[in-house]
Write a structure and sequence with these properties.
Length: 148
């Protein structure tokens, strides 16, 4: 009887630990390609490549409490679909908005960065880190402003 209960508990624990990647919001293994295959051939031409027009935008002088935004333009210069998994600001005052759908090779997209200067003074420089299926998998863009 004890063995039966133990086996049922083990089975339930195993089933509970399984989860569906699509429901968890994570990339599936099929979305990520390794740059070198098992036979040693280079596969980097098949990877997406996230290329921004510029990686720093200076808002110049803004008033304290002002909210400003800028859209960073990028192009997928690689050979596969670009998937942006997340984009996060270096603090709560910097909020990025990014495309949730795959970006095919040769197509462009935008990452809009909103900066709230409330409670800030002087020169501020904030960073947004973009996580994607590129090599390397993180890219950064920055915004800068002088708060009057």
């Amino acid at each position: 009887m004890t063995k039966t209960i133990f086996l049922y508990a083990l089975l339930l624990g195993s089933l509970a630990s399984c989860r569906n990647e699509k429901e968890s919001g994570q990339l599936s293994a099929d979305s990520v390609e390794l740059p070198v295959s098992a036979d040693g051939s280079n596969q980097t031409q098949r990877l997406p490549q996230l290329v921004f027009d510029k990686d720093l935008h200076d808002f110049g002088q803004i008033k304290a409490g002002e909210k400003v935004s800028y859209s960073f333009r990028f192009v997928n210069r690689g050979g596969g679909d670009l998937i942006i998994q997340s984009a996060s600001g270096s603090c709560g005052c910097t909020v990025p908005d990014y495309p949730k759908e795959p970006i095919p090779p040769g197509r462009e997209g935008f990452i809009r960065v909103m900066f709230n200067s409330e409670g800030k003074t002087g020169i501020q420089e904030k960073q947004v880190t973009v996580l994607s299926n590129t090599m390397p998998n993180t890219t950064t863009v920055r915004v800068k402003a002088e708060i009057l």
